[in-house]
C-alpha cells in the first residue's frame, strides 16, 4: 500500500520535471503508475492538485500550497538520511554523467582516477555529449556544460568562469594586416555554431557574411584557425599552449567577450543523491584550487 510520503514524493517529481513522463523515468515507474499516485493523493486530500490538459498541467491553489510546504521537508528528510548514511556507508552506485569531449578530456578524465580512489564504491559511466536535451531520457545524474544555460527548469551549480578571446595566427594577421581597428566583418571568420544559436551571444559576434567555416567542435575550430583559414573565438583554457607558443595571437581585444561559466547540471528532483553530491563537491574544490588553468597564461 502506498504511503502518503511516496505519493507526495511522486507529486514533487511531477512538478519539478514538468511532465508525468519525465517523472516516471526518474522514479523508474510507468506513466500510468505516476498518474495513479497523483489520483490517490488527490482522493486522500479530497482536493484537486493539478489541472490537466492533453499536453501540460498547471498547479491548482491547493497543489501550489502542497508543493511549497512539502518540497523543503522532503529535501530536509533526504539530507538527514544522507547524514546518517555518511556516518555508516560510503557513497556508492553507478554515476552517469556527460561532458563535451574537449573539456571532459582536458579536465574531468585526468581527475577520475583520484576521485575513484576517494570513492571506490562509485562506478562511473561517462558519456560525451554537447546537449542537455537527453539528461532525463538517458537517466544521466549530472552533466557538465559550458556557457549560458537555457531556462530548461534544470538545476545547476556553477563551478568556475573562464575567458574567451578572438585569436588568429601570426601569418593570418600579416596576410590581412589585422589590427585592433580592423573591421572584423571584412575578414574570414571561423564560427562556433553553438554560439550562433544563443541569442545572448549574437550581439558579441561580428555581423559578417564572410564566414569561412562553421562547426560545433572547438577542436575543429582550433584546427582551422591554426591552418590560417580565419580568426575565431575560442576559450582560453583550450588554447593556452598555443598562446604561450605564440602560434595563436589575440586579436580585436577591445571587443566585448563576456566570461563563460562551467556548470554542473542535474535534474530538478527533490533529492540529490549522495554520489552526485560528492562528485559535484569534488570538482568544485578542484576548480577552486586550479583556477589558473582556465585563464590567460
Summarize this entry quickly.
With 297 residues, the chain is α/β, with parallel strands linked by helices. The chain is built from twelve helices and twelve strands. The strands form three sheets. It has a five-stranded mixed beta sheet with strand order 4-3-5-12-6.
Structural notes for this entry:
The chain is built from twelve helices and twelve strands. With 297 residues, the protein is an alpha/beta fold. Strands 4-3-5-12-6 form a five-stranded mixed beta sheet. The longest helix has 28 residues, at 61-88. The termini are far apart. Belongs to the LysR transcriptional regulatory family. Pfam families: HTH_1, LysR_substrate.
Keywords summarizing the entry:
297 residues; Arc Repressor Mutant, subunit A; 12 helices; single chain; five-stranded mixed beta sheet; D-Maltodextrin-Binding Protein, domain 2
